[in-house]
Design a protein that fits this description.
alpha+beta, RNA Polymerase Alpha Subunit, Chain A, domain 2, seven-stranded mixed sheet, 16% helix, 42% strand
Length: 483
């Protein structure tokens, strides 16, 4: 019977078996040889390139600092962190020679901070974070110095503070400071919670030295703690500067002139009146103040028989009502000015008193040769009782005017001048006076002058009003008492 022919691969089997048998028999020797070669290579490399420990001084890197901003945290001791970290690295000597500075990077990661703990605390807290180092392949971290850093963290808060205006210096004379206004009145600031809690006041200085009118200026705000320390630089302000308006108005003195209405009762007289104060100080626009008339409080006598005092309110009687309406005109009382005016009215009963005036106390005007024939004249004077009681003849002026009177005897009314508030009762007193003819002076002859000649036929000088044959004899001197 015919046998089936064998496949071709069956014919090749003996050859493959020989090959597989060779590989299997020799493989262990090959592996052994390769391992031995590697060992020998490594041993030779160890001897030729031994491992070394080397320190590297590298800057500390801060990763994910944005976490602090996102969580409203602030690092308080940023400048206390170590600037450089000592990193000890083990590696073959050949690798140390080619190690780049950027390949060793010590760092801390702020993602390890728990923000909730910081916000829950009453103040800043300390957090310790380890330092990690990134090394390239072939290097082993040997040590880190320091191995960790201490962080002082605080909550970052926002606060709105009212601005306190500190007035410094004095304004110009005759002016008044109305108010100092900061715009805006509040300031928004941010900073560590522990610093914000230290704020005692947010201030802005208002320099007033010599200012005479309203002034606008820009000033920088300052944050002050309770010890007076300026902590402005520890905070962040949305607006560090504020517009300051210093409102100043001029001050004017306005007189008070009372107005009397009506009359006193019969037999009584208004002697005088006055106000306390006699004037007031007002502030307002200069164009209004310069044309402001006096204040005129009105008092109705209403047949009064006694002195009295009345109080007026400037605010009620002039500022808010009345013809002037000062408040409407933008005028106000100065701060130093009282609101009240006190009007005093003095009323006294009338009294009459007679005075005898000797002719020697009478002043004479005009006339060279006269004789007063009346020894004494009497005057009756009426006025307020207190004035009449204090009156003396020294306060009464009586004058005799001889002008326009010729020679002869005359009854001439006297001029009587009295102090204010007094009046003469009845007609002026009359004085009897005799005016004498004028006395001619003697003619002086100068015999020593040879050039002077006298015509014996020329009549002597005489008063044409009185011819020589009619001239009266010179009367005796009776004017000694009247001169």
């Amino acid at each position: 019977m015919n046998r089936r022919a064998k496949p071709v691969y069956m014919k090749a089997l003996p050859m493959n078996k020989r090959i597989f048998r060779f590989i299997y028999t020799e493989l262990r020797w090959i592996v052994l040889a390769a391992g031995l070669s590697l060992f020998l290579w490594m041993a030779s490399m160890t001897l030729l390139d031994p491992e070394q420990n080397a320190p590297y001084l590298r800057p500390l890197f801060l990763y994910n600092e944005g976490v602090l901003t996102n969580e409203n945290l602030v690092l308080l001791n940023e400048f206390d962190l170590p600037e450089n970290i000592v990193v000890g690295v083990r590696a073959p000597a050949s690798l140390h020679n080619v190690l780049a500075e950027a390949e060793i990077r010590p760092s801390i990661d702020f993602r390890a901070v728990l923000a909730g703990e910081v916000h829950a605390a009453d103040g800043p807290i300390e957090v310790t974070l380890p330092i990690s180092v990134n090394l390239p392949p072939g290097f082993v971290l040997h040590h880190i110095s320091p191995p960790e850093v201490r962080l002082v963290l605080d909550a970052y808060v926002r606060s709105i503070q009212r601005i306190n205006i500190i007035e410094m210096g004095e304004i110009a004379p005759q002016t008044e400071l109305q108010r100092v206004v900061a715009q805006p009145e509040n300031v928004t600031l941010s900073g560590p919670r522990s610093v914000v809690q230290r704020i005692d006041s947010v201030q802005i200085p208002a320099q007033l030295f010599g200012l005479a009118e309203t002034t606008l200026r820009t000033e920088r705000v300052r944050a002050i703690d309770r010890y007076g320390t300026d902590i402005t630089d520890l905070l962040t302000f949305e607006n560090e500067e504020t517009t300051l308006t210093v409102h100043i108005l001029p001050v004017r003195r306005v007189d008070i002139i009372p107005h009397m209405q009506g009359e006193t009762a019969p037999g009584f007289v208004l002697t005088h009146y006055w106000t306390e104060p006699a004037y007031v100080y007002l502030v307002g626009p200069p164009e209004r103040l310069d044309n402001l008339p006096a204040l005129t409080p009105t008092f109705a006598l209403n047949r009064a028989i006694a002195s009295s005092s009345t109080t007026f309110s400037i605010e009620a009687d002039y500022m808010r009502r009345g013809e002037m309406e000062l408040r409407y005109m933008g005028i106000n009382l100065a701060r130093s000015q009282s609101d009240y005016i006190v009007l005093h009215v003095a009323i006294e009963p009338l009294r009459e008193r007679n005075f005898a005036i000797n002719h020697g106390n009478i002043g004479v005007f005009g006339g060279a040769n006269y004789t007063i024939l009346t020894e004494t004249v009497h005057v009756s004077i009426r006025g307020a009782a207190s004035v009449i009681d204090a009156l003396t003849t020294a306060n009464i002026t009586v004058q005799l005017n001889l002008h326009n009177y010729g020679v002869g005897t005359h009854r001439i009314p006297l001029d009587v001048f009295l102090p204010m508030g007094l009046e003469l009762v009845g007609a002026p007193p009359v004085l009897t006076v005799r005016i004498n003819p004028a006395t001619l002076p003697p003619v002086e002859m100068n015999d020593a002058d040879p050039d002077t000649e006298t015509d014996p036929d020329e009549p002597a000088d005489y008063d044409p009003e009185y011819p020589p044959d009619e001239a009266p004899a010179t009367p005796p001197d009776e004017t000694a008492d009247g001169e």
